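Structure in, sequence out. Go:
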C-alpha cells in the first residue's frame, strides 16, 4: 500500500476569459491532444538509418549478373 498521498496534476491549460461551452472545451482538448500526439511521433533526426554492417546485407538476393545479360556473345558475327 502506498501511504503517501498523491497530489493531483496541474491542469495543462486554463480558460482565462469568457465562458466556453462544454463543446468548445472538448474541441480545444481534442486539438491539443492531437498536437501532442503528433509531436510525440515526430522523429528526432531526419537522417536515414545507419545500415552499415547490418546482418541483412550479408545475404545475397540476386546474382551479381545474369547469364542472359550477354545473349549475343554466342552468335557469330560476320
Amino acid at each position: 500500500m502506498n501511504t503517501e498521498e498523491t497530489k493531483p496534476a496541474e491542469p495543462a491549460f486554463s480558460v482565462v476569459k469568457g465562458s466556453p461551452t462544454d463543446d468548445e472545451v472538448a474541441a480545444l482538448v481534442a486539438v491539443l491532444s492531437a498536437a501532442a500526439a503528433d509531436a510525440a511521433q515526430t522523429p528526432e533526426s531526419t537522417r536515414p538509418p545507419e545500415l552499415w554492417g547490418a546482418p541483412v546485407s550479408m545475404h545475397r538476393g540476386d546474382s551479381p549478373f545474369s547469364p542472359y545479360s550477354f545473349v549475343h556473345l554466342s552468335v557469330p558475327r560476320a
